[in-house]
Write a structure and sequence with these properties.
4 helices, alpha+beta, Heat Shock Protein 90, single chain, five-stranded antiparallel sheet, 5 strands, 147 residues
């Protein structure tokens, strides 16, 4: 059976909403019957993207984060959008262990982790306008089964 779904949620860029975003994506993909590993990877992707928006995009100031979730059969697409300060050098930010906030003991692995857990990973950013992180992941669901 063909499966398709779409949802979006907008929330304040507050650290406590990182857990909320993880729960939302978990509930959204449940009809696809993901494995525990797949579910944990999706929650980690969301956690890293939302945390980056809060800490780097808004620098812990007021702002909104938009999370768009969609799936078509076994493919899930997650898009995390912030309207913060943007990333000056996206290529540099994608380097392993790079962090713009070393004084905060950040590991600089967030983008790398998102990329490793994704089948496709995109990031675009404009200074003063914000950042868009988009990931696609293929789940090992039984999409022929009616849920």
């Amino acid at each position: 059976m063909f499966k398709r779904n779409y949802a979006e949620v907008v929330f304040d860029a507050l650290s406590q909403n990182e857990a909320f975003a993880r729960m939302v994506v978990s509930g959204f993909v449940m009809p696809l019957d993901p494995t525990i590993d797949e579910l944990n990877e999706l929650k980690t992707i969301v956690s890293e993207a939302v945390t980056n928006s809060i800490i780097h995009g808004y620098e812990n100031k007021k702002g909104k984060v938009k999370m768009v979730m969609e799936y078509e059969n076994e493919w899930i697409t997650l898009t995390i959008i912030d309207y913060g300060k943007g990333i000056e050098d996206v290529n540099k930010a994608r380097e392993l262990f790079y962090t713009s906030k070393p004084e905060e003991e950040r590991s600089g692995m967030g983008l790398t982790i998102m990329e490793i857990f994704s089948d496709e990973f995109y990031i675009s950013s404009k200074i003063g306008e914000g950042t868009i992180v988009k990931v696609k992941k293929k789940l090992t669901c039984s999409c022929e089964n009616d849920v």
